[in-house]
Amino acid sequence: MDIFDKIIAGEIPSYKVYEDEDVLAFLDISQVTPGHTLVVPKKNVDNIFDYDEDTAKKVLLKLPVIARAIKASDDKITGLNIQSNNGPSAGQTVIHSHWHLIPRYDDDNLNSVLAPTIDNSAHFSSEQYQAIADSIASQF
Ligand code: 5GP
């Protein structure tokens, strides 16, 4: 069981923003920018090379829906990067497919999201994580 399986099973807590039968979306603990969300298939799919057609449809069709909710959650969000690292050589550290939805702000000074190795977790309290998650979740 990888760490995202444990989050899906509720064995490890997370700040959920969206859930249905096939997909879970929750805040990335690292918060590259505020609202940084991971979208994961509940099915244990390792990476992009491992998706069957049905799972791809169910997960990928949710990306615009969740992206819009993130954008609507904060009027300072002016853009959003979507990134998925596939395989250790591409920077994948958790071997359970996931899509980084990284909101962008005009003043975020972020140079690259190509490998989201930035860790801002020290700057967020549990109340702040919860407030961001609630604000996104309320958009559905
Ligand atoms: P990767 O490097 O595989 O593309 O992304 C893995 C992501 O998972 C990282 O951005 C990291 O911050 C996030 N992550 C790792 N462990 C946890 C966890 O226990 N909870 C949450 N919410 N995010 C995690």
Quick recap:
The protein has 140 residues and is α+β, with helices and mostly antiparallel strands.
List the helices and strands and how they pair.
Layout: H1 3-8, E1 16-19, E2 23-27, E3 37-41, H2 53-60, H3 62-72, E4 77-83, E5 99-105, H4 126-137
Antiparallel strand pairs: 1-2, 2-3, 3-5, 4-5
The structure holds guanosine-5'-monophosphate.
List keywords for this structure.
140 residues, alpha+beta, HIT family, subunit A, 5-stranded antiparallel sheet, 4 helices, 20% strand, globular, binds guanosine-5'-monophosphate
Walk me through this protein's architecture.
It comes from Leuconostoc suionicum. This is HIT-like protein. Its EC number is 3.-.-.-. The chain is of the alpha+beta class. The protein has one domain (about 5-135): 2-Layer Sandwich (HIT family, subunit A), CATH 3.30.428. About 25% of the residues lie in helices and about 20% in strands. It is built from four helices and five strands, in the order αβββααββα. It has helices at about 5-10, 55-60, 60-70, 125-135; strands at about 15-20, 25, 35-40, 75-85, 100-105. It has a five-stranded antiparallel sheet with strand order 1-2-3-5-4. The model has no long low-confidence stretch (mean pLDDT about 95). Guanosine-5'-monophosphate binds next to strand 2.
